[in-house]
Each structure stands twice: as C-alpha cells, then as structure tokens.
Specification:
There is one protein chain. The protein is of the alpha/beta class. The protein folds into three domains: 5-99 and 173-204 and 361-422, Rossmann fold; 109-162, no CATH class; 210-246 and 272-304, no CATH class. It has helices spanning 17-20, 52-60, 77-86, 109-117, 158-162, 188-195, 263-266, 319-323, 364-373, 391-399, 410-422; strands at residues 5-7, 10-14, 27-30, 67-71, 90-98, 122-127, 137-140, 143-146, 150-154, 174-181, 257-259, 286-287, 297-298, 312-313, 332-337, 351-354, 382-384, 403-407. It has a ten-stranded mixed sheet with strand order 1-2-18-17-3-4-10-5-11-14, sandwiched between helices. It has a two-stranded antiparallel ribbon with strand order 6-9.
C-alpha cells in the first residue's frame, strides 16, 4: 500500500494495522483504543484492543525478544493485557504514569435524584474557585484558569439529601503502561547476538541525580579517602574508599513509576528528615558500617531536591505542543474536555475548538522516554499500530529512530503527518 506520509525515517499508513504490519520490528510502542467509546468516537468502541488476534498479528511482525509498551485505561487495561498475553507475549511489568491534572467525571447522585423528581435545587452560592470537581476550570495552554462560575446547590428532596456527597467516579490520576516481550530465542545473550534485540535501555533512561545535593567525602556516608573498615563481607577491612563507585556517575535506575511533576503528586512524597546534621536528605535509616553493633543511623543520600524527583517526570502535553505543525488545519471541536461534571450541558460535555482534535494526545516527553527505553544499540524499527496524532513518531524522529505508524482514521493520519513534518532531530 502507498504510504500516506514518508519522510525523516517515518512512514505513516492509513488503514487497518492488522493488514499493513511489516516484518522485523525491534519494538512496539503504542497507545491503542481503550474501548470506552470515549467522546462518542467509533474507533474507541470496536473491541480491536481486546482481541488476541490483533496482538498475534502485531507479534508476528516483531523480532524475537522485541519489547512492547502499550498504554491503557484504568477501567479496561486488564482486557488489553489479557489479549496481549493470550497472543503469546510475555507480560514483564506494568508502568504507571501518574499526574495531578486530571479532573473527575463523576455524576452527583443527589442532583440526579432531584432532577429525576423534577425539583429545582436551591442555589446556595456562586463559586469561581474550582474546588467543586473542576467545574470552573478552563485550559489556557498548559495552565489552568479559574474564570467561569458555577452554582453550589442544596438538596431539595429528602431522598436527595440522603445521597448528598455521593458520586459515581474517582478523580483520574494515572494511566497504566503494559510492558510485554516477544518470547526470546534462547537466552537474552543469545537473542542479543542473533537478532540484535534484547532487554531494555537501562542506562539510557536513568534519572539524573542532582550532584549538588550529594554528600561530600567528609560526611558520615563517605569514609575518608584511603580509610578501610571491616564488615561481615570483608573481615579484613580491605576496601579503600577510592574503589567505591561514584553514585552520581550514571543516575538512578529507572523505575516503573513516571509522574508529571505537579504539586499534587510531589506532595505525595514528603521529604524525609536528616540524620547527623547537615543538609543531606535521607530515605530511611541504615546502619553505620563503622559501628554496626550500636546500630547507629547514618544518612543515605537520595541526591535530589525532593523525594519524588528520584523518578522520571513528565507533564501532560500543552496546547502548543499538541498543535505544533497543524497551523494550516481548521479548528475542530475535540481534544480534551474543558471541565468536569458541573460544566456539562445536558448529557454532552463541552469541547474546545482546536487544530489537533485527537482526544488522547500523550506528551512528547513521555513517549520519547518510552521509545528510548526500548531503543536497541544498533538495529531499530519501532512500530506504532495505533499511531493517532503521531506522538510516538515524533519521539522517534527526535531520537533518530526509524519508525512506522498506522491508523485507520484518515484525519488522524493527516494530523500526524503535519506534526512530523515540523519535528526536528534532537540536538
């Protein structure tokens, strides 16, 4: 089939991924339909992600040992994971992308009872602070503006009063990312040598440590240069400090936790107290090797300015990022919703006019991190069988990795092509 777009190592096909997948993919990175019928989109209600046949076809296009990263929704990702596993993939892990900017899409049961009874509720006050389920929240680029008032009401019937404070959903704060692997051809070592594919790019995805907050050699954590000490592993005490590896040289081992750096998330990881004075932060109490029998606590540095900073962080995509390259396209109602349940008109949520109207655009930094995680040393061909507006492809362009994107929605292919045409290699 003729490519819809082909440039900068990127090829986009408009069609069904089950009919277009090439051979010898080194990895799959994708954001498939969550099958929620989100915003009435037909492509999100066909069940393609729940079918093991879909993931079997995708697996056949991959080299042995090829990793797969698939995002999912909290309500349905288990169905996607089961289909992936039933198709012959090995589930290796589930990553979490945690964010603080989600808004609840919860029905107020008390209001619904009064509405069903045909009774009008009394308005207590008009609020603009947005504390009632995000009702006054609008988006201005990637920040929030609280500029639209909403009414705070009081239950009108005894039944509604009984159900005051009850809703139907929690505030969304994370999305799972399924990590799977095409079965190996023998061992990881054999697979690496034979197929050029194996494992994950750990060092390439380490989280940078803030060296300014690392303890110096005069702290309780470091022994003075050349000093030796005994331990149960080293009774003779022959381990001089100059042979101790530099903790800051590579950065932190990547975790299966990714967050958006928002205040709400950072506050979930309060900074711990310090031991022994100074400014060194700790992540608990360890026992001093110098005096282990007395079990004295000594600082174990985390090497960053806040405890959540030990994880990779990535904010949601901004309006500017979503629409870059799409300036020539007409505005279309779509994208993310403007607010929560308090701003709904009837049963229809209000939508914003935007160039890139795809409702599930992921941030480029997140997809770049995921692509880097499955990048191999030499041979690379990453496929996104559900490429949507093309953020995975943008990440591949920035990293100089050949990639193929497929989507059965032509408008999404157009948006992806426009965005790819404006993306440059990362310097």
């Amino acid at each position: 089939m003729t490519p819809y777009y082909q440039e900068k190592g990127v090829t986009i096909y408009h069609g069904d991924c089950r009919e277009l997948l090439p051979d010898k993919a080194s990895a799959i990175v994708t954001d498939p339909p969550y099958e929620l019928g989100f915003m009435g989109k037909s492509w999100d209600s066909k069940g393609i992600s729940f079918q093991k046949e879909t993931w079997q076809i995708i697996r056949k296009s991959c080299l042995s040992g090829a990793p797969l990263l698939s995002l999912g929704g909290t309500r349905t990702f288990h169905r996607i994971a089961c289909a992936i596993e039933d198709a012959g993939w090995e589930i290796r892990d589930t990553l979490m992308w945690v964010y603080g900017s989600g808004f609840p899409k919860s029905l107020d049961i008390s209001k619904a009872i009064d509405k069903q009874a045909g009774v009008e509720r009394e308005i207590v006050r008009i609020r603009t602070d947005g504390n009632k389920g995000g009702g006054a929240k609008t988006y201005d680029d990637d920040s929030y503006v609280w500029d639209k008032p909403f009414a705070e009401t009081r239950a009108a019937t005894p039944e509604a009063q009984l159900w005051e404070g009850y809703g139907t959903a929690l505030k969304p704060a994370y999305e799972p990312i399924i990590l799977a692997m095409n079965p190996l051809d023998g061992t990881f070592a054999n697979n690496a040598l034979k197929h050029g594919v194996a494992g994950l790019n750990i060092d390439g995805c380490r989280v940078e440590i803030n060296i300014e907050n690392e303890p110096d050699e005069g702290s309780a954590y470091y022994l003075k240069r050349g000093q030796e000490y005994p331990s149960k592993f080293n009774p003779q005490g022959s381990f001089p400090i100059e042979h101790k590896p530099n903790l800051s040289s590579k950065g932190r081992f990547p975790a299966n936790f990714i967050h958006d750096g928002s205040q709400q998330v950072m506050e979930l990881f309060p900074e711990t107290s310090t031991h022994g004075g100074g400014t060194t932060r700790t992540r608990g109490i360890a026992f001093s090797p110098v005096n282990s029998q007395r079990r004295e606590p000594f600082p174990v540095p985390i090497g960053d300015s806040g405890s959540a900073a030990r994880f990779f962080y990535c904010a949601k995509s901004s309006k500017a990022e979503r629409n870059k390259g799409c300036e020539e396209l007409e505005d279309t109602l779509g994208g993310s919703l403007e607010g929560g349940n308090d701003k709904r008109k009837g049963d229809k949520p209000q939508l914003k006019p935007t160039k890139n109207f795809h409702p599930t655009v992921k941030p480029l930094a997140l997809m770049e991190y995921l692509v880097k995680l499955v990048k191999m040393p030499e041979y690379n061909l990453i496929i996104d069988p559900f490429c949507g507006s093309g953020t995975t492809l943008l990440a591949c362009i920035r990293l100089g990795i050949p990639c193929i994107g497929i989507d059965n929605d032509e408008k999404s292919c157009e948006i992806a092509a426009k965005r790819c045409s404006q993306m440059e290699l990362k310097i």
